[in-house]
Write a structure and sequence with these properties.
- The protein is mostly helical and about 200 residues long.
- Helix content is about 70%, strand content about 0%.
- It contains ten helices and no strands.
Length: about 200
């Protein structure tokens, strides 16, 4: 062993939680280089571990991307829940905030958002990813159900799908930089306008 720690090569499995470290490196690599240049070798290099470490934990590139998408959906749900809690107990207000949380996640994590919703690389038949993705849809559906229950009914599937389409469309267009006018507004002004768009289009 060399006496100069800075000169020693990176050792495999030197992280306390290697799986979490690899997922963090994978997300950073995806953000920096995109899905086309994404590889296990580049993730291992970014994490400072052996080239074999990602394959040991995730099998192949798609296995790593599947795990990353599942982690993304779990964070996505938590983010929506946190935004909903800002609205108190009113179901309609909570649904609007859930939509804003959806959009905010997409804007903060555009590459991860595209992996989750627009890539065929993750395996949605894999149990952990399937459950995480279902929970994400369930979060918005539950908010729609609460609005319908307040008026004494049940949310129609078409109502849930319409709400999802509106919120996801806004999220995707903003994350891809295509809603230039909205994207160019100051944060509070943009949020207020988005809140109004969602509120006008949710079932009452």
């Amino acid at each position: 062993m060399t006496s100069d720690a800075t000169a020693a090569p990176a050792r495999p499995y030197h992280h306390g939680d290697l799986r979490a470290a690899l997922l963090a490196a994978a997300e950073a690599e995806l953000e920096a280089r995109g899905i086309e240049a994404f590889s296990l070798r580049s993730v291992a290099k970014r994490a400072g571990v052996s080239h074999a470490a990602p394959a040991h934990h995730f099998g192949d590139v798609n296995g790593l991307l599947t795990a990353l998408a599942a982690e993304g959906f779990r964070r996505f749900v938590a983010n929506q829940a946190a935004w909903e809690d800002r609205a108190g107990d009113d179901p309609a207000a909570r649904l609007v905030e859930s939509g804003l949380g959806y959009i905010a996640f997409a804007q903060a994590n555009p590459a991860l958002f595209r992996l989750m919703f627009a890539s065929d690389r993750p395996d949605f038949a894999e149990e952990a990813l399937c459950e995480a993705a279902d929970a994400a849809f369930g979060q918005l559906a539950a908010a729609c159900e609460a609005v319908a229950a307040r008026r004494g009914g049940a949310a129609l599937p078409a109502d849930v799908e319409a709400t999802w389409a509106i919120v996801h469309g806004l999220a995707d267009l903003l994350a891809s930089g295509r809603l230039k006018r909205l994207a160019g507004l100051p944060g509070a002004e943009r949020e207020a306008e988005l809140r109004g768009i969602i509120a006008r289009n949710i079932p009452r």
